[in-house]
Amino acid sequence: xxxxxxxxxxxxxxxxxxxxxxxxxxxxxxxxxxxxxxxxxxxxxxxxxxxxxxxxxxxxxxxxxxxxxxxxxxxxxxxxxxxxxxxxxxxxxxxxxxxxxxxxxxxxxxxxxxxxxxxxxxxxxxxxxxxxxxxxxxxxxxxxxxxxxxxxxxxxxxxxxxxxxxxxxxxxxxxxxxxxxxxxxxxxxxxxxxxxxxxxxxxxxxxxxxxxx
Length: 213
Ligand SMILES: N[C@@H](CCC(=O)N[C@@H](CS)C(=O)NCC(=O)O)C(=O)O
Description:
By secondary structure, this protein is an alpha+beta fold. It has 2 domains: 2-80, Glutaredoxin (3-Layer(aba) Sandwich); 88-195, Glutathione S-transferase Yfyf (Class Pi), Chain A, domain 2 (Up-down Bundle), CATH 1.20.1050.10. 54% of the residues lie in helices and 8% in strands. The protein is built from 9 helices and 4 strands; from the N terminus they run βαβαββααααααα. It has a 4-stranded mixed beta sheet with strand order 2-1-3-4, covered by helices on one side. Helix 1 (13-22) packs antiparallel against helix 7 (161-172) and helix 6 crosses helix 8. The longest helix is centred in the middle third of the chain and has 29 residues, at 122-150. It is globular and about 50 Å long. The protein starts with a strand and ends in an 8-residue tail after the last helix. The structure holds glutathione (GSH). Glutathione (GSH) is lined by residues 10-11, 38, 50-53, 64-65, 101. It comes from Bradyrhizobium rifense. One of its GO terms (molecular function) is transferase activity.
């Protein structure tokens, strides 16, 4: 059985939604981030970066949310949460998933934690935060343009794991002055995906109540 090490609404949310949509049995293991458990000796032994999530799949211990998502969709190709390997659509799926994790997610991390770059320099922290919000907003605009032309989901009308990944990031980005949902085509995707029972179940298991994103 899969084991997903998580903390509510952290980067485990996308793998968690995918596990639910796949209908796979899994065990959730809380990493008590409120008490810095992600930096405990025990957790560092499975995730040397001290970051959440980690997936344990038998003898395989896997970190990085996007890698976990890719592994899960590859293990269960019959669920069609990604196009077939080698198809042009698969390449576009890689493009969007990697854009989400490598560009948007990283910018959101800087926006959420600018002091990790600036230390105690309050003025610099504000500049970094504002810059990260602007850059994240520009990435969201790119997604909005793509969805307007090619939507309603990343791969047209074909649900893929990239859609779940955007839900996770959109939840984090809710406090932005121009949040993801302010863009109509992103809002439509978020409405479609958060209406899925699998998505609601995943967030419920994590103790998240109310609107998801
Ligand atoms: N690139 C990693 C980032 C994971 C990450 O930064 N997770 C956050 C929670 S969303 C975390 O563990 N933060 C704890 C810390 O930085 O100490 C991934 O996508 O899995």
